[in-house]
Amino acid sequence: MRLRDRLPTYLAEQGLPEHGGQEGHIDWITAFGLRWPVPNPPIRKAILPKHDAHHLITGYETDAIGEAEVGAWALGATGPQPLLGLVYDQLAIGLGMLQAPVRTTRAFYAGRGCQTVYDIAVPTLLDTDLADLRAHTRIDTPRLRHWTDHVAFAKTLALAVVMPMLAPLLMLVVVLQRPSRQTA
Question: Is residue 184 part of a domain?
Answer without folding.
Answer: no
